[in-house]
Amino acid sequence: MTTTSAPAPAQAPTQSDARRRELRRVAFATVIGTTIEWYDFFLYASAAGLVFQVLFFAPAGPEFATILSFATIGVSFLFRPLGAFLAGHFGDRIGRKAMLVVTLVLMGAATTLIGVLPTYEQVGILAPVLLVLLRILQGLSTGGEWGGAVLMAVEHAPDGKRGRYGAFPQIGVPIGLLLASGVLALMTGVISPGDAFLEWGWRIPFLLSFVLIIVGMIVRRSVDESPVFTEIAARKEQTKTPIKQLFKRHWLLVVLAALTFAGNNAAGYMTTGGYIQNYATTPIADGGHVGMERTPVLLAVAASAVVWLIVTWIAGSVSDRIGRRNTYIIGWIAFLATVFLLFPLVNTGNVWLLFAGLALFTIGNGFTYGQQAAYFTELFPASIRYSGVSITYALGAILGGAFAPMISAALVQATGTATSVAFYIAGIMIVAFVATLLLKDRTGIPLGPDHEAEQSASAIYGVK
Q1: How many folded domains does the chain comprise?
Q2: 335-354 tens-digit pLDDT
Q3: Can you give the CATH number for the domain in which 253 is found?
Q4: Residues 6+ apart with CB under 8 A from 322
Q5: What per-residue confidence (pLDDT) applies to 7?
Q6: CB-based contact 336:426 (threshold 8 Å)
Q7: Measured between alpha carbons, how far is 167 from 164 in angstroms, rounded to an integer?
Q8: Domain membership flag for residue 142
Q9: Helix orientation angle between 15-47 and 209-221, rounded to the nearest 10 degrees
Q10: Could you please report the per-residue DSSP string of 227-243?
Q11: Domain that holds residue 41
């Protein structure tokens, strides 16, 4: 007689299984949300370099219209600190998760509305005014979004893996650039080539933001609040005036950390700010230097975003092994070694050499960006961390990338050569390099509220 044994009872999910699932949800949510946020932001920057000077600023003349178009990119940066102040205050008071949803909705609404704006030809001066107002809303959103995303990722991360998990919201940035450039390339090369892109094709990528934002909201609402903030809230230890405390005790840290980001941001906005796209595609008959077709340039930028993504991910993981500061130093050296190669390669007019220049440039970009989430998180005390991270990021963006495309366009017009742009970017990188050397490496410092005293100790060499 054959007997059959009863099937073994299914094992109940362990606490470690639940922990792994939550980490995957957090990683996915930060990548998706940051990707959507930066898709919107880079979409605007690319459109500013490709079409906005014609549609919204044409009466200013070709050269000045380009400068005005890039200036609207910079205007949004001026409002990032306000977004950072607001999101930082409420993020340290009511939590990281709520602010992530608010900033995502604000960015998506502004981007979608840009897609239905009338042009200067249709309503005159009202068109650029409305464009700038919506760009300001994008700036407010961006100022608050990044800090919340990185804190959710890093404060959830296991010890020893903060750089790796902090790289998730960071890789959302090149994915956003890849998505924005890819959709624009699809519109210019397949769906609405030539004049159709100027007439209506440029609007479609902006309108797609409405769909993406719904997806992002669903994903972000599915994750738990940061464990660090949950512990702070349970103890009722939220700081009533986090921004006041930040500048009272850590103002020099904010300035130096902002300068480290300024170097990365100024260099990164050569591509993400739309400058390379404009420089490479402006027809020679209109005062351009290269005169390439839009679609190949956009595809080269999209391909370089893939390289940027990979290097950013590697940098985050590497920083867990060699420290955030050492990873930055590698990045600055890589940047300074390639900054003077970029424009000679672009000037060839060969799309493969254009891609090669951008790909080389992204090595420094990734190694000064992948570890930044963990680096900034470890610099500030838990009770004021959202404010510290967000405001530092926003100030660094103003000092570095806000007007980099506009300044670059003005330099080329004044000097007749893009070499002047390379010297400008290299100068900012050197300042950032020095700022990096002045800051201590706090890789692995405990992040919870029990260690507030250790976190509040000076992170600056020579300062007690």
Answers
A1: 1
A2: 999 999 998 999 999 999 99
A3: 1.20.1250.20
A4: none
A5: 57
A6: yes
A7: 5
A8: yes
A9: 160
A10: HHHHHHHHTT---SSHH
A11: 23-456
